[in-house]
Design a protein that fits this description.
Elements (H helix, E strand, L loop, with lengths): L3 E7 L5 H13 L5 E7 L10 E4 L22 E5 L3 E3 L4 H10 L5 E3 L15 E5 L4 H9 L1 H4 L6 H6 L5 E3 L8 E3 H5 L1 E2 L6 E2 L10 E3 L6 H6 L3 H6 L2
C-alpha cells in the first residue's frame, strides 16, 4: 500500500499525552510510510513528530472531529483514530485490506459496540480517501450550529450520511474489543464497572470509550495499561 496520513484530534479535555501516546502506539504497530498530523489547541505540548493543525474555534467537543474532512494532506488516504482507542497489535494487514477495497466504499471503520442511538456506524477509527469525503465538511459547515445539536454527536450525524461503509471487524479477525462492553463486567446494581485484572492481548484495538479513560486506568495502576499505553 502507498503512504497514508495518520491524524488525531487533541483538543479541550484531552492532554497532549494522549496524542503523543497514540502516535507511539501507531508507530509500533504499522510498518508502512505515513505522515502524522494533530488538530489541536495545545501545539506547544504536542510531539514534534506531528504536524500540528490549529483547532477551529467554532467547533467544540466531538464536533472537532469533522475538521479532519477539511484538510489538504499529502497522501491520498487518511487514517483517523480516537485518542482513547488503544492499538495493541499490528495494523498492517487491516490497513492494507482497507486501502485495497476503499474505492468500493465511502469509508472504512468498525461498528459501534452497542449501536448507540440505533446507529451502526462508529467514528473511533476511520480510513478514507480525503478528496472523496471532502463533501462531508462542506455540508456540515453550511449549518453547523444546527447540526451540532444532533443527539449522539458526530458519530450519529456521520452515520446518517454515509451509506457505503466497510465494517472492518466483519473481515479482520479479532479486530477490536470494547473495554466497557466486551471485557468488563458490572456490579449487580449496574452502577459500577468492574475492570478485569488481566486481559488477553490477541486482538488489535482496545476501545476505552466512555469511562474509565486510559489515564484513569493508569492511576488505578491497571497492569495492562502500562503494557499498551506508552
Amino acid at each position: 500500500m502507498g503512504p497514508i496520513n495518520f491524524i488525531v484530534v487533541c483538543t479541550e479535555k484531552y492532554t497532549a499525552e494522549y496524542a503523543n501516546k497514540s502516535l507511539n502506539m501507531f508507530k509500533r504497530n504499522f510498518n508502512g510510510t505515513f505522515s502524522a498530523f494533530c488538530i489541536t489547541d495545545k501545539k506547544e505540548q504536542i510531539s514534534e513528530e506531528f504536524v500540528c493543525i490549529e483547532k477551529q474555534s467554532e467547533l467544540t467537543g466531538w464536533w472537532n472531529k469533522l475538521s479532519i474532512f477539511n484538510q489538504d494532506l499529502p497522501h491520498e488516504n487518511t487514517l483517523y483514530v480516537d485518542l482513547d482507542l488503544l492499538i495493541m497489535n499490528p495494523l498492517d494487514d487491516a490497513l492494507k485490506f482497507a486501502a485495497q477495497t476503499i474505492n468500493d466504499y465511502e469509508i472504512a471503520c468498525f461498528g459501534d459496540h452497542i449501536e448507540w442511538h440505533g446507529e451502526q456506524f462508529g467514528s473511533a477509527f476511520m480510513f478514507f480517501n480525503q478528496e472523496k469525503l471532502r463533501w462531508i465538511y462542506e455540508e456540515f459547515i453550511q449549518d453547523l450550529n444546527s447540526y451540532m445539536l444532533t443527539q449522539g454527536g458526530d458519530q450519529i450525524w456521520l452515520g446518517q450520511r454515509l451509506s457505503k461503509v466497510l465494517y472492518l471487524e466483519q473481515h479482520i479477525k479479532n479486530f477490536v474489543k470494547s473495554l466497557k462492553f466486551d471485557l468488563a463486567t458490572w456490579s449487580a446494581d449496574r452502577q459500577q464497572i468492574l475492570i478485569p485484572d488481566e486481559i488477553t492481548t490477541d486482538f488489535i484495538l482496545l476501545n476505552c470509550h466512555g469511562n474509565p479513560k486510559p489515564h484513569e486506568l493508569a492511576k488505578l495502576k491497571w497492569k495492562p495499561i502500562r503494557e499498551i499505553w506508552y
